[in-house]
Amino acid sequence: MVDYVIEFWRDNARTTPADPWPQGCEKVGDFRPPFSPSARYPPAVPHAAPIFQFNSQRRAIVDEVVERVCSAIRDPLHTLNDAAYQEIKRLQRAGGPEYAEWRSLARQLGRMSDSEHRAKLEDYARKYAWDVAGNFDPRVYKFASRAMAPLLGALMSPRSTVRNLPGSFDLTALDGRVLVQGPREHIKKLSEVGTLVFVPTHLSNLDSVVFGFALERAGLPPATYGAGKNLFTNPVLSYFMHNLGAYRVDRRLRHTLYKDVLKAYSCVLIERGYHSLFFPGGTRSRSGGVERKLKLGLAGTAVEAFARTAEEGRPRKVFFVPATINYLLTLEAETLVDDFLQEEGKARYIIEDDESTRVARVASFLQKLLGLDAACVVRFSRPLDCFGNYVDDEGNSHDARGRVVDAVDYVVGRAGRPCRDPVRDAEYTRELGDRVVDGFKRDTVVMATHLVAACAFDKLHRSVGRGDIFAMLRHRDDVSVSRAELAEDIDKLVARAHVLEEKGELVLGPAVKSKSGAAILDDALKAFAGYHTHEVLTPRGADLVLYDTRLLFYYQNRLAAHGLAFDAIAPKPRAKAS
Questions:
Q1: Distance CA 12, CA 196 (A)
Q2: Can you give the three-state secondary structure of 218-265, one letter per residue?
Q3: What is the rounded distance in angstroms from the CA atom of residue 338 to the CA atom of residue 331?
Q4: What pLDDT, in 10s, does the model give residues 298-311?
Q5: Contact in structure between 41 and 139 (CB atoms under 8 Å)
Q6: Which distant-in-sequence residues (6+ apart) come within 8 Å of 63 by Cβ?
Q7: With DSSP H G I counted as helix, E B as strand and the rest as coil, what are the percentages for the chain, rounded to 5?
Q8: Alpha-carbon span 467 to 444, nearest angstrom
Q9: Are strands 390-391 and 537-540 parallel, antiparallel or unpaired?
Q10: How is residue 162 annotated by DSSP?
Q11: Given 33, 120, 258, 516, which residue has the most CB atoms within 10 angstroms?
Q12: Is residue 373 exposed (0-12), middle (13-18) or buried (19+ Cβ within 10 Å)?
């Protein structure tokens, strides 16, 4: 796989005498960057983003995380007992050295002194902090920035597939396929006066790569982000994630110590000015719908970071940037919707084997993506401060009436000075979560597949909707609709969507904004054709058979929160800060 990427890059890199990148492409098959550290590079473009100095600060960051975690834990014995119990429970089926280590620790804890508990706590906190800590190599960033389009294919695709993908495979290959919208200049100005925290929706394991492309194309600085350790299995993708600011999150670890390390790491990064990326949904949307309930543990670290810096008399402005990632097709749609339905909405936290782990499926998806215009739209929302207020270009906060307010006032305690207050800050985080969810809803981009699936599923509901959702979905291949009727229904749905767009409640995608229902139907059928395992809508004369009702349900769910599609997902309570 590494060979394919290096050979592809060799064949396609555009070089000049002043840009001698090919000199490093000498160790084919060696698991190293596609250039050697000794190779000469052109002068780097100066970057203000702190992430470009991350490696020189990494040890200091880890030390600060460990000190902060250990000093905040008053009862190390309880914390170690919790970790040992959780890890023994997780590992007991597989056994092995790690299981034996935790069993041994559990037996010894009762005989240890307080100082020994403290020492052991620090050992594990440091182990976890180093495991979490990311890495950033400006040279890898430069290479990835110039070659992002081919990398999207080359990272996971065989050479033969890469060479046959449409387009010229320079950076512009994705420009018509991945569109970037929203107040980019405003966000860029804010990046110069504070720390950005991007909080996008989450549909696919490709989201991190696609969002990184969007940041680069928008001229925004790169961000650190947490990525599940299960995503570090592909050797090439893992290399780039390791070197482009990703920090590893092991979602199998549920004990308090590990969670404290993760939160402290995130908090320290934000305090030091590292722009960050969180997926506040916590995991990919199994239903395909826009997230309505968020997991705000990591987002809460930004509120804590602001309060800490204000408490120390050096308030660092922190800005949240909601964003939506909208796909015409979703790589893992079939696995995700099956998981959603099988668990009745209580999704498993990690799916170990889905389309994103299968080379052939990813290659097929990328071929499809690069063959469709506006196949993905990344849309940034208006930035917010930590308390849900909109901000101007200088980073000043404005309340609901448009008045300028001092964000520091939100964290002033009873003594009249800024301070941290976990209960108060958790409430601020919940309120911020509500504003982020509002942003997701307003900036959802409606695509052809969403509209067609919504109208087709409405036909299914009207035909067999007397039972629950599972009874409806069992009607595969026995409900059909004429093309003309479906196109007419799409026209009506688009008209309703236009009304909502005028109110600022959603965004019609550029590929559907001015098209007729018949043209939108053709676009959706073209997108569906040849990618999913089963046909979604099967032609039968002048009719279309609703064949894969699961996928119709999945794609129509994108519009459910807006009242434009059948809503089988019960309204969610307010977001909880964890």
A1: 34
A2: CCCCCCEEEEEHHHHCCHHHHHHHHHECEEEECCCCCCHHHHHHHHHH
A3: 14
A4: 889 999 999 999 99
A5: yes
A6: none
A7: 50, 10, 40
A8: 30
A9: unpaired
A10: H
A11: 258
A12: exposed
